[in-house]
Every structure is written in C-alpha cells, then in structure tokens.
C-alpha cells in the first residue's frame, strides 16, 4: 500500500471517529450548533472516501485511453470535496432557519463541549499531517482533505465557545445564531476549495519556484545547445509536464543533440521526480530574438 492510499484510509478512520464524538455531543446537549458541526463531519467521511478513490485511480499507469495517466482524478476529487462542503453548509442553514424561531435549551453542555474538544484535537493533528504530506507528495486530494479538516477545527472551536456562552447566559438564541455563522464559514471554505482546485483542471503552470528551477536546470545542463524557447509547463496532481524547443547548431549531429536532451531530461527528473519532459530540437536559424533562455 503506497503512502497516499494509507493516508486516505487513515483519514476515513479519523472522520468516522470524530463524527461519533460529535454525534454523541449533540445527543447529550441538543445543540443545533453542535448538530451543524456533526453534519460537517459526515462530509469529512464522504470526502475521505472520495480522496481514497482518487489516489487509487491517480496511481494507475497510463493506458491506451489515458496516455498521460490518471493524475487529474485527484483534482476532480478536490473539486467534489468542495461541492460537498457547500452542500453541507446549505443544509445547516436550512436547519438554522427551522430552529431559530424556537430555540431549545441545552442539556449537559460541559460534557458536550469536552467531546467537541477531543474531536477537534484529533482533527487538528490529522489536518497538519495531511497538508504536510499532501504538499510533499504533490497530492491535491490530500491537501484539500487537510484544509477541510483545519476549517472543521476552527468551526468546532467556535461552536464550543458559543455553546458555553449560551449555557452561562441562558440566552438560547446564541445556539442557532452560532450554527448560522458556522454554516456561512463552511460555505466560504467550500467555495475556496473549489476555486483552488479548478486551476489544475485548466492546466495551470507549475509554481513559480519550479519554473525558476527548470530554467536553471536547462541552462546548467544544456551545454552545447544555443537556446531554449517556448518553455511550457502544466501540472495535474503529482504529475508535472514540461515541453520546450531546444535550438542547437545546424551542423550538430542528431546523436549529439540527443545526448544533450537526455542530459537535460535526467537533470529535470532528478529535481522534479516524475516530470514528463518533451523537447523539440531545432536548427540554429530557428533561434528567437527575444524571450528565449540563452544557454
């Protein structure tokens, strides 16, 4: 089992455990705000399932129908997670609309808050693991899952504080009002997740630091060539795609030009593991007057 799959499976386990704690807190207190927090945890379970599917599909090798691989499955997963978060927020708002006219009192708020605190600690620790490992593995699905859990921690903290305030003051309206605020926060969080993930579907360039590294590698490894131009990049989950034109002296043999290309490709893959590199070799009269990387 690879690291991505193991992390996705562990996320599913954490999600189920956290949902159980929050559900128990809601049953004990009857709090609408805690119910909204528990409903978001159902989304956590769903997104963990989607992430598990995505990392397994993305790990499949290229085939006849998908010659560039299945990497975008992770991006689709991240978009789906964002959509589920938005739907959960809308459902919570519906519950708030129903309950705000007749807010109920709270039962055993202390125990409920304690359970929420335990659930938040579990979510917070696992969110850090997912975001750190997701960035290391270039996995949008895992990063999106981690960001969602981090947002869940923030909402749970707000819910716990609000439930405590409602219990101490006796102002029952605080609970549904807080649930509404949680729903709005979740709604914004889901929209941000969708917006951040869509860039991968649109073949956005790799981050600027990776582009700078590519220019450096081409310059350092391209001895014998004249210049490189039309350097293009895109990313799809953990995969990186690079293509450019390499200008060589007109009298250079095909074999020698091929050696230079191999040297550049090896250097790129050494610094950006898994990068798929395509180089189009051109004679010297194809050199660009501007915008080219001189070697």
TrEMBL record:
The name this protein goes by in its record: Protein p34
Lineage: Bacteria, Pseudomonadati, Pseudomonadota, Alphaproteobacteria, Rhodobacterales
One GO term (biological process): intracellular zinc ion homeostasis
Record flagged with keyword Ribonucleoprotein: no
Location within or outside the cell: Cell membrane
Domain Cation efflux protein transmembrane stretches: 9-202
Transmembrane intervals: 7-26, 32-55, 75-93, 105-129
Gene Ontology molecular function, alphabetical: cadmium ion transmembrane transporter activity; ferrous iron transmembrane transporter activity; zinc efflux antiporter activity
Gene3D superfamilies: Cation efflux protein transmembrane domain, Cation efflux protein, cytoplasmic domain
Start and end residues of each Cation efflux protein cytoplasmic domain: 207-284
GO CC terms in record: plasma membrane
